[in-house]
Amino acid sequence: MRVLLISANREFIPDPIFPLGLAYIAAATECAGHQVSVADLCFEHSPIQKLQQRIRTFDPEVIGLSVRNVDNAAYPLTVDYLASHREVIDAIREKTQASIVLGGSGFSILPEAYMQALGADYGIKGEGEQAFTSLLEALKNQHDAGTIPGVLARNKHPADNLQVQTPAKTNPAWGNNARPARQLFNYARYVRRGGTGNIQTKRGCMFKCNYCTYPLLEGSRFRVRDAGDVVDEIEALLRDYGPHPVFFVDSILNFPRGHVEGICEEILRRKLTVRWSCYATPVKLDRKQAQLMARAGCEGIELGTDAVDDEQLKRLGKSFDAATVFRANRHCLEAGLRVCHTLVFGGPGETESTIRNTCHALHTMRPTAVVAMTGVRVYPGTPLAKQLLASGQADSDIGLTPAFYIEPAVKDFLPAFLQQQARAGGHWVLPGMEPPLLPVSQRILRTLGISGPLWRLLHYSWMRRISRTKFKRPATSWGIPNPRRTLL
Ligand code: B12
Ligand code: SF4
């Protein structure tokens, strides 16, 4: 079949991101014997015209649309991407009768609501390779597609009852030798403009942090690739596209123990020069691990710390305490790694005192950067959403309008206090309060050849000057804030 795969993501903040998930789908679709064309709208000046032109020349039978983000997950400057996805669907419908299939992490968070809102023919919740190729097979042979795991099919259900009939499945055999079809896209442009390439070394997360969607998206078991296979992919990337830094997109790279160690040892064994960064957990992050990561080219890690107060960590469902955060932070800094803590303020039970404890700890630890979210983005199906539903603090349609929880007791105190802390710290970013970096500054830095995660430069005063506008008034230059709601 002729299959057109579209990446509609045009978000440039914090960076334009290569559509890795869609590249995996493209590889699986080609491998299943279909003719694949891709339309990546990220850098297009007239994306809708370009898309319609491609539809005219390629005449697809099936169109897959990747919905990576549904919103920017930031409060109060929330940017909702629904309208831009709707524009893409309308443009497709204007030109072709081809079946439209939605997929991607954003879509998988809200599959029924998105199917409903966009009027697509099919949707795939979760991992896409197997489900999409099975769906294409069913469409080709005119079989019932509704029973394929993870598939939502409009033709089998009344429009008001779109549901996954057979639960989505993760592929236990996913891993070695699967390669995203980067060659079909302009990967090099993403590296130039985005500053990093992206690689996935495993899927899943076994932790149960109460707001987090990753276990829902990727499964709650780790499925890991062999270190040799990962490093083969890195070597091929550097050979094909020249030296560039890599970001490992795994939920957390340094868990389970042994995984990151294997990759680092393989990089060192092959004497490969590569700069890389990743998400990590403070759990079991000791001196040995930090030093090995640094020796193997790690230039920075983003620690999913969330809070540095024992009570609040417990309430967020984290699997570590404040002392573990301090230890991990120290080991990383001593090993020469740059450290960025990501924080989630305002979750259930948060008090002025827990906020002060966390902020005090952050100032004491002196990390390279701090990214602090105001309020918790509430996603359907997470333990937090269930808890809020059970207590009557949310209704059952936590859905299309981005919803955030801010503990009522700190609602008035939190925003101003965080701004004050950010001013005092200097190296803090408050994504919901103002753009993490002005788009123009980001573009200049990348054009000057500065690659890798930009947060690691926040300890330079020149970087702080260009990355912050005045704290007095939230800037909206990177998007007009859309409606969102708070759950109290
Ligand atoms: C790594 C990551 C980042 C890194 C990316 C670094 C890099 N160089 O790649 C950074 C930190 C920069 C980042 C930034 C952002 N991110 Co992010 N990110 C992730 C993360 C952890 C992994 C994404 C990834 O690459 N996965 C690996 C690929 C292979 O998986 P995948 O894309 O899901 O694709 C699979 C399926 O979805 C499906 N699929 C994908 N496309 C299609 C298409 C079709 C047709 C089909 C059938 C199936 C299908 O099949 C694929 C293979 O199985 C996800 C969470 C997660 N666990 O998924 C969040 C996630 C995607 N991010 C999210 C958000 C919100 C953002 C930001 C907007 C945050 C912000 N305000 O800055 C920005 C947006 C950046 C941008 N320009 O788009 C949200 C999106 C949900 C939402 N609220 O919209 C997620 C889901 C996290 C969450 N909160 O739950 N992110
Ligand atoms: S926050 Fe991190 S450690 Fe916790 S469940 Fe999500 S991905 Fe796993």
What does the model show?
With 488 residues, this protein is an alpha/beta fold. The termini are far apart. The protein is globular and about 60 Å long. β3, α3 and β4 form a beta-alpha-beta unit. The chain has two domains: 2-164, Cobalamin-binding domain (Rossmann fold), CATH 3.40.50; 195-487, pyruvate-formate lyase- activating enzyme, CATH 3.80.30. Helix content is 37%, strand content 16%. α10 runs parallel beside α11 and α11 runs parallel beside α13. The longest helix is centred in the middle third of the chain and has 15 residues, at 227-241. It has helices at residues 20-31, 47-58, 82-95, 105-109, 111-118, 129-140, 187-194, 214-218, 227-241, 259-269, 287-295, 310-315, 322-335, 352-365, 383-390, 413-425, 439-447, 461-467; strands at residues 2-7, 35-40, 62-66, 99-103, 122-124, 151-153, 197-199, 202-203, 223-224, 246-248, 276-280, 298-306, 338-345, 369-374, 376-377, 403-405, 428-429, 485-487. The chain has 18 helices and 18 strands. The strands form four sheets. A seven-stranded parallel beta sheet has the order 7-10-11-12-13-14-17. Cobalamin (B12) is lined by residues 9, 11, 14-17, 20-22, 24-25, 64-66, 68-74, 101, 103-106, 108-109, 124, 127-129, 132, 196, 198, 200, 213-214, 217-218, 247, 249, 251, 431. The site of cobalamin has 44 residues, from α1, β3, β4, α4 and α6.
